[in-house]
Every structure is written in structure tokens, then in C-alpha cells.
Specification:
- The protein contains 19 helices and no strands.
- The longest helix is centred in the N-terminal third of the chain and has 33 residues.
- About 75% of the residues lie in helices and about 0% in strands.
- The chain is an all-alpha fold and about 500 residues long.
- The protein has a single domain, classed as Up-down Bundle (Growth Hormone, Chain: A).
- One of its GO terms (molecular function) is symporter activity.
- Belongs to the sodium:galactoside symporter (TC 2.A.2) family.
- InterPro entries: MFS_2, MFS_trans_sf, Na/Gal_symport.
Length: about 500
């Protein structure tokens, strides 16, 4: 391995790389928060069928994700191993994004379910071919511990911006773009807008980021050995289980809160809350700020329209808190206490605040927003740490085995992420059906269905968070161990025969 001359990464490169995660989250956040509800209320699928659609794609992922890791690790171009994949897959990734939220005129429910399965699976496949190399790229931009944390912190500032936009503006934009009551048209316009922006950002990543870490010069390609090294790695197994259960929880909670706001929260109380913060239409609304809010669909005209804006504002508050939490807390806490300790404490607090959503009455809008503030603040420091820790796992594999398989290591964790996304949505779909939720828009739900929605928004996802926290206790790379490991790897890489 050639000696790394400069471990520092410029802010411009960090920003360019971070835009890629903004692009990925324009897709991921949409699927995490709105996919299940889109299937039940726009496509008209039963909750259990929507859940099955998501699980089928996971079977395909079991073969696709390792393949992507192996292919990207073995790619040799003048641009590196991972950068080219980000560019090559940018356009098809965004095309399949649009198709996953578009019905080409199919009416028979069985065919709708088949179309949903195919389009969702294709989108998830392209997500793997794009995001696995993208994530691996972050692991080879620098081996400096602090620089790596800084890269992931900047990256997740941009992911939080995408979270803010998608979670906060999707429903208002869908309502704005809907011609009369044509929600499908509103969804198509909104997703197309996000896809165009996402494509541009992925192109910028290709021209911005650089690969600085390469495998040892004498390392030979050996897929069987790569698989053995990864599966025998204790830190990799811990991160796999952690990622799986964290994203099961995020997908379940994010989607469930959508149903929570539409079916549990009192619309009149929510309308009053929005009126108090200036988001209700008035005859004298002539300011520039008012017209900007109205342009994005954030001005509500009546209580029956409060759900779209109220849920959007709820998500915006969480995204803003998370944004500042990532900037102000993540790097500071990780450098002082180590990634593992920080992650465990923050995840435990996140689980507690998630469970507390079981208790507010449907009129207590303020308490819901307070809990969201606390939950988002607790979770924020963990957001960039996950990927920084996975990069540390790739270093640990090289440290122990004298071999590096960054793409394969990241592909396994990306599979866990996508499996969590699918399983979380599927569990919610099955729970909705089990509690008697009736699919379709604007349908009054039974008390049993509403109680199931409340449970799915609080106690059940909190339990999954705690499982992830337990898995993290088995992660062996402490702050002290990491510093020793990086010093040894730096010494090895400086030798001409390594």
C-alpha cells in the first residue's frame, strides 16, 4: 500500500461527499415515512399485503447486497473503486424512485400489488448499487479518526437537511400539486422534483470526493476469504444487529406517526396549534414569508387539512433539532467519551422518549412536540457515528487479517439497513391489519385500530431500540483500542512492502 501523504480532507470535499447522502435520503426518508401509507391509502393495498411487498424485496437484497460489495471491491478504474458506481447508477436509481410512487393506470388490486413488488424491488436494488459504494467511499477518504468523524458529521448534516425537506414538505407539496383530489398526480410531481435534485447531487459527489486508502499491494482477490473474515468479525456482527434493529425502529415509528397524526391526533386541536404559530390562512396574509409558506403548502385553510401541515411541522421540528444535535454534539461527545459509549447512552434515551408517546391525549399537541424535541436531541449524536463505526470495522478487519474488503463490509450493513427498512414497514403493515385498520384515504378507523396505531408509535418501536442497544454492548472497538489500531495501521501503510 502506498503511503498516505495527507490524511486531511478539505471542507469542500466533505460538502461534495455529503450531498450524496442528501440524495440518498431524498429516497430513504420517503420510503421510511411514507411508503407504507402510500401503499395503503394511494395504491389501496391492505396493510399485510403492503408488508409482504417489502419483505419480498428483502429476499432479493440477500443476494444483491453482497454482490455489490464484491463487485465494488474488485473494480479498478482511474477514478478508484467506489466513485464510478455513484455516477453509473445515479440516473437509473432516480428513475426507479419515480416509478415506485407511480401507478401507470393499473386498477386490479392483485396487479397493483405485483407492480408495487417489482418497482419497490428494483428501487431497492439500485439503492444497493448506489449507496453501498457511496458508503464505502466514505471509509477510504481518510484513516484519521477525527477526520473520519468530521466527514460523517458533515455527511449527516446533509442527510438531516433531506430529512427536513422530505418529512416536512412531502405532504404539503403533494396537496399543493394535487389537481383537485388527484393525490396520485401530486405524488408524481413531488417525487419527480426530489429525483431531479437527487440525480444532480450524485453527479457532484463523483467530481468532489477522492479515495486515499487502498488495500495492501500484495492482497489478492479472494471472495471466500472476504466472506470468512467478515462473518467471523465480532464488531461487524454487532454493527449488523445494531443497524438492523435501529432501522426497524425508525421505519416503524416514522410510518406509524403518519397514521398517528391522521387517525389519533384531534384535528381541531392541531388546527388551533397551527393557528398559534401562524400557519393558518388569513385574509391579511400579504407578507413575503406568508407567500413562501403558502407556496410550499404550509398554510392550512381548515381543520380537516391540518393533518398534512401538522405532521410536516412535527417532522421539521425533529429534523431541525437533529441537525443542530449532529453539529454541536456528535463529534464533541465521540471525541470525549468514544463512539461506543456515546451511542449506547443516546440510544437508551431515544428508546425512553419513544415509549413516552403512548401517554399524550389526542388533544395534547404541545406534549407530542416536546417529546419529539427530546427524542430527536437524544438520537442526533448517533446519526453520523453509525457509519464512522462501520468504517472502523473495515480498519479492524485489515488490522486483524491483513486484508481489506471495505465494500463487502459496508454491503452487509447496507443490507441490514434495508432489511430494517423493509421489516419495520412490514411489521407495521401486519400490525395495522391485525388491529383492524381499513385501507383507503379518509376512512374512519375503529378504536382498536387507533390503539394499535398508538402502540406502533410508542412502546413497540421502543422495544426494538433496546435490542439494538444490547447488540452494541458487544462492539469491542473502544476509543482506546481504536487509537492503538490506527497507529499500527498507519505504521504498516508507510512501509513499501505492505
Amino acid at each position: 500500500m502506498s503511503k498516505i501523504q495527507n490524511q486531511k480532507v478539505s471542507m469542500a470535499e466533505k460538502v461534495g461527499y455529503g450531498l450524496g447522502d442528501c440524495s440518498a435520503n431524498l429516497v430513504f426518508q420517503m420510503m421510511m415515512i411514507y411508503q407504507t401509507k402510500f401503499y395503503t391509502d394511494v395504491f389501496g393495498l391492505e396493510g399485510a399485503i403492503a408488508g409482504t411487498v417489502m419483505l419480498v424485496a428483502r429476499i432479493v437484497d440477500a443476494f444483491v447486497d453482497p454482490t455489490v460489495g464484491i463487485l465494488s471491491d474488485r473494480t479498478q478504474t482511474k477514478w478508484g473503486k467506489y466513485r464510478p458506481w455513484v455516477l453509473w447508477t445515479a440516473l437509473p436509481f432516480m428513475v426507479f424512485y419515480v416509478l415506485a410512487f407511480y401507478n401507470p393506470g393499473i386498477e386490479e388490486k392483485g396487479l397493483v400489488a405485483l407492480y408495487a413488488t417489482i418497482s419497490y424491488t428494483l428501487l431497492m436494488t439500485m439503492y444497493s448499487f448506489n449507496n453501498t459504494p457511496y458508503s464505502s467511499l466514505g471509509g477510504v477518504m481518510s484513516s484519521d479518526i477525527k477526520e473520519r468523524t468530521s466527514i460523517t458529521s458533515v455527511r449527516f448534516v446533509f442527510s438531516t437537511i433531506a430529512q427536513f425537506v422530505v418529512q416536512g414538505l412531502t405532504l404539503p407539496l403533494v396537496s399543493k400539486f394535487s389537481e383537485g383530489s388527484d393525490k396520485a398526480h401530486g405524488w408524481l410531481c413531488t417525487i419527480s422534483l426530489f429525483a431531479a435534485v437527487g440525480f444532480l447531487f450524485l453527479v457532484i459527489v463523483f467530481f468532489s470526493a477522492k479515495e486515499r486508502i487502498t488495500p495492501p499491494a500484495n492482497q489478492k482477490n479472494d471472495t471466500r476469504q472476504d466472506i470468512k473474515d467478515v462473518l467471523s468479525s465480532v464488531p461487524w456482527r454487532a454493527m449488523f444487529v445494531l443497524t438492523l434493529f435501529v432501522f426497524i425502529t425508525l421505519a416503524m415509528w416514522g410510518s406509524a406517526m403518519n397514521y398517528y397524526f391522521e387517525n389519533y391526533v384531534d384535528k381541531a386541536a392541531l388546527f388551533t396549534f397551527l393557528d398559534n404559530i401562524g400557519l393558518v390562512a388569513t385574509d391579511g396574509g400579504t407578507s413575503v414569508g406568508y407567500h413562501i409558506l403558502d407556496a410550499f403548502g404550509l398554510i392550512v385553510t381548515s381543520p380537516d387539512k391540518a393533518y398534512e401541515v401538522g405532521f410536516g411541522v412535527f417532522n421539521m421540528v425533529g429534523a431541525l433539532v437533529q441537525f443542530f444535535g449532529v453539529i454541536c454534539l456528535s463529534e464533541f461527545l465521540a471525541n470525549k467519551y468514544g463512539k461506543k459509549r456515546t451511542f449506547i447512552v443516546c440510544l437508551a434515551l431515544t428508546a425512553i422518549f419513544t415509549a413516552l408517546f403512548y401517554f399524550p391525549s389526542k388533544y395534547d399537541i404541545e406534549m407530542m412536540f416536546v417529546l419529539n424535541f427530546l427524542k430527536s436531541l437524544a438520537y442526533a449524536p448517533t446519526v453520523p457515528l453509525l457509519w464512522a463505526m462501520i468504517a472502523d470495522v473495515a480498519d479492524h478487519s485489515e488490522y486483524i487479517n491483513y486484508r481489506r474488503a471495505t465494500g463487502f463490509i459496508f454491503s452487509g450493513v447496507v443490507f441490514a439497513l434495508k432489511a430494517g427498512l423493509g421489516i419495520g414497514g412490514a411489521v407495521l403493515g401486519f400490525l395495522l391489519s391485525g388491529f383492524g385498520y381499513v385501507s383507503g384515504a379518509d376512512i374512519a378507523q375503529s378504536d382498536t385500530a387507533v390503539h394499535g396505531i398508538i402502540l406502533s408509535s410508542s412502546l413497540i418501536p421502543a422495544a426494538f431500540f433496546f435490542v439494538g442497544m444490547v447488540a452494541l454492548c458487544f462492539y469491542p472497538i473502544s476509543k482506546e483500542y481504536n487509537e492503538k489500531m490506527q497507529a499500527e495501521l498507519t505504521a504498516r501503510r508507510s512501509k513499501s512492502d505492505y
